[in-house]
Amino acid sequence: MLENIQSTAQYIKSRIGDFEPEIGIILGTGLGGLVKEIEVEKQLMYSNIPDFPISTLEFHSGKLIFGTLAGKKVVAMQGRLHYYEGYSMQQITFPVRVMKYLGIKSLFVSNASGSLNSEFKKGELMVIADHINLQPQNPLVGRNDNELGPRFPDMSQPYQRTLIDKALTIAKANNIICHKGVYVAVTGPNLETKAEYNYLRIIGGDAVGMSTVPEVIVANHMGLPVFAISVLTDEGFNDVLEPVVVEDIIKIAEEAEPKLTLILKELIAGS
After folding, report:
1. 30-70: per-residue pLDDT in tens?
2. Which CATH superfamily is domain 2-269 in?
3. Measuring CA to CA, which residue among 200, 219, 220, 202 is closest to residue 210?
4. Contacts (Cβ under 8 Å, ≥6 apart) of 170
5. Is the pLDDT of residue 194 over 90?
6. What's this model's pTM, rounded to 2 decimal places?
7. 67 with 17: CB under 8 angstroms?
8. Angle at 108 between CA 270 and CA 268, to 5 degrees
9. How far is CA 90 from the centre of its chain?
10. Could you tell me the residue ranges of all domains in the chain?
11. Exposure b/e, 35-50, CB count within 10 A at least 16 = b
12. In what residue span(s) does the Nucleoside phosphorylase domain sit (predicted)?
């Protein structure tokens, strides 16, 4: 895997010249609008990058965007990969490892998720302070390469506390409702039943989604500080669940995206 990471990173470097990103960004469902704020220098389609997995979702565009955001050089994944698409955890997290070899010093992640906490309403934001991993595989399973990270990486602080505090301060200063909570990662692609939502609340979850945690595990494995934030797009705490369709999730995420963009821009500017 190390050879593939290095060769893919080398190919990308040959396409972007002397551009060296400081920050990596992963954009979740309905949250690609942040790209409009980037002064774009280069764009690469996933399909043109050797060994790079291709997003199979029609609402994930599958581009690596290189440019400047809030005065910082960034590389943004416009379109992420999911376990339910049929990829292995190693494939899903391959882009994170490549971004590290491109030079990033920290990783910012966004996603759309369902609220489990009755005080967290759809359309609001939640900074992820911790997570519970219920996905069936782990990206670190298999032979460990010490050049990538330790065999048993510490996960006592998977999300950097200073970034969490700064994000909450930015939200408050801009009158944005933004909570702090625990994200539960499940396989998907189906949404949860009423009993499953209840179970996820009982074990300590505030929001549930189908992504993020594999990338965060690998980022921690490689020593990358992480900040992650969710747009809450539906609610799983009502006595009677309302049917949810993906179009509604995307619509709510897009409506909340300007608030998320503001927080990320100011956070990146001060990082």
Report:
1. 777 888 999 999 999 999 999 998 876 655 568 999 999 99
2. Nucleoside phosphorylase domain (3.40.50.1580)
3. 200
4. 176, 262, 263, 266, 267
5. yes
6. 0.95
7. no
8. 15
9. 16
10. 2-269
11. bebbeeeebbebeebe
12. 23-269
